[in-house]
């Protein structure tokens, strides 16, 4: 029997009563509707890289979309940016990094900075993935969804998707308040993503949008470089921070066939060059575990002077101040590698303060205990309750 531990990057979570892997669009819709008609909890899963699931059995239906095609669409208008816009549609089950590699191979610019982010195209728009100065929102044109409320297919345009920092209308449909499930549509949004259409630019070069990346490439932020070089640099920087998903997982029976073999080999090579081997303590994580808090100007004034501050937008649209969750965690006394005690099977990544890792044999309660210790410690030090970035299923990490 398959468990969430087999399907998630952090490697924890209970047995799954029913796992369906539809290979057609109708099959995905039928699986979703069937769970609804039987009153069963539904979890649509992609790469399982943004989920922390309780160890108790999941008495519901898990749907993993097995459609992974990518198609360049006709009808790109020559009037748009001198014919440089190219529309590409990818099915929800397509591995995200397979998609990035494909686009770069076609000579398209727009997603190269998002190289090496684990997961699927379907989930990329749920939390508006972002890294190294790029967000998926900037290249999405529209998202084809199954609306579980109206029981119909809908096309959501970019302006209907309410993209924000690690946020979208899809993700918002799951929560009534930060980390508080909305009930009906949790742990999967009201809108099940069927495919995503991207508007990318025909260009072999892209903008280097982040300091660390510019340093790795020996250029300035804002300079243009070959997209392939940007991709390689991003993968290297990610490997050095333990922020590449462990590609060994694709050899496991539950993950086989979900990523292109050529790209699994490349990922293994990058990991090995970055010093990551089969016994890496940081291999099982959800990436960043906490979101960077967005505060009002008044709240931000209570932080120490040297705390990072960036302009941001509050959920209600007012201007706000984003600070760094990693900074807060570190300055509250939780440093890289932190564990609650020597024997604890979960700990902070030894390379990145924001990643909670399963060091081997951790259960959901071990990870939750570590997460709460950090939330409590940061709240005590700075009065800010950190909100988990992954979807936390069967546990309360408010
Ligand atoms: C090592 C590591 C590094 C990471 N780095 C980054 C980073 O730099 N930036 C970043 O933004 N994220 C990062 N992440 C988080 C994660 O990779 C992304 O959030 C990713 O988009 C999750 O994709 P997934 O397919 O694994 O989603 P899952 O974990 O399978 O699902 C997450 C949520 O999306 C929903 N979902 C999945 N598929 C669909 C669908 N078809 N329709 C509707 N809902 C769906 C699920 O129900 C769930 O609510 C990182 C994770 C790891 C492990």
Automatic annotation (TrEMBL):
Active site: 166, 288 (proton donor), 389
Compartment list: Cytoplasm
Reaction(s) catalysed by this chain's protein: UDP-N-acetyl-alpha-D-muramate + NADP(+) = UDP-N-acetyl-3-O-(1-carboxyvinyl)-alpha-D-glucosamine + NADPH + H(+)
Keyword Cell membrane: no
A single cellular component GO annotation: cytosol
Pfam families in the cross-refs: FAD_binding_4, MurB_C
Top-rank taxon: Bacteria
UniProt cofactor(s): FAD
Pathway named in the protein's UniProt entry: Cell wall biogenesis; peptidoglycan biosynthesis
Domain FAD-binding PCMH-type positions: 12-203
EC number assigned by the record: 1.3.1.98
GO biological process, one term: peptidoglycan biosynthetic process
GO molecular function, one term: UDP-N-acetylmuramate dehydrogenase activity
SUPFAM superfamilies, A to Z: FAD-binding/transporter-associated domain-like (SSF56176), Uridine diphospho-N-Acetylenolpyruvylglucosamine reductase, MurB, C-terminal domain (SSF56194)
Major localisation: cytoplasm
Family annotation (PANTHER family): UDP-N-ACETYLENOLPYRUVOYLGLUCOSAMINE REDUCTASE
Family membership noted in the UniProt record: Belongs to the MurB family.
HAMAP family per the UniProt record, alphabetical: MurB
Protein name from the UniProt record: UDP-N-acetylenolpyruvoylglucosamine reductase
Species of the source: Bifidobacterium ruminantium
Gene name linked to the record: murB
